[in-house]
Design goal:
alpha/beta; 6-stranded mixed β-sheet; about 50% helix; about 10% strand
Length: about 270
Amino acid sequence: MKKTLLWQLRPRKGGPDSWLFGTMHVQDGRAFTRLGEAQEHISRCEVFATEFDFSDLDQGAMAAALQLPEDTTLDQLLGRQAWKNLERYARKHLGIPAEALLHQHPMNVGALLTAALMKENAPASLDETLWQYARQQGIETTGVETFAEQIETLGKIPFEAHVKNLVWLLKNYNRQKSRLRKMLNRYAEGDIQKLYESAKREAKGMRRVLLYERNKIMARRFAEIARERALFCAVGAGHLAGEKGILRLLKKAGFIVKPVLPAPSK
């Protein structure tokens, strides 16, 4: 598997060139190394797609999905040591007491703590930055998933798994910083195979729900558009590689798939 985030695809029976780009859902500038190149290709396309179209974001539905049930609080779910760790890290890295997170879903708390370990060099995440660029160019935007499907995926994950993941993070917070640094380095290298392997490890027993089923949906919708119209599609880089990855699925669906290697640095 070539080390690149950008791939050119063309229907084997003839049709326009389209592009698949692996992103990270972060604002860390280390993930923006191929931004200019991606924007150049977006400008040549008729349609731009992210995992879901950001214009479909339902803030109310998102807030509801990331809240605990009324009769449940985070301190009830975490053991004494984990809660103590949360108090320390929330104050140090988020600037708030743990009590401010009392009614937040464990996944959301974990996402906030993880984001705090990375830089915020950009005003928006990489995928949203690309979406904003496409909108500014007057290019039609869509999603290869819907926002409702992403909320549905969240609901398929056993709640106990979310709690377990947060407890692990609170126990291994310093280790997580090292893991993120390695992930960003692999991303900068375009090593989508290693990113896929990391995504599999993170998904653990939920690979079918978090990776494989979603890959099928995204590949199918990519193909529906790209058989007729030039498409630039930006999805999480962990979805590209592997036997059940989007690139392999699109090849099986009748697309010629070619890597677009980064231009050599001057």
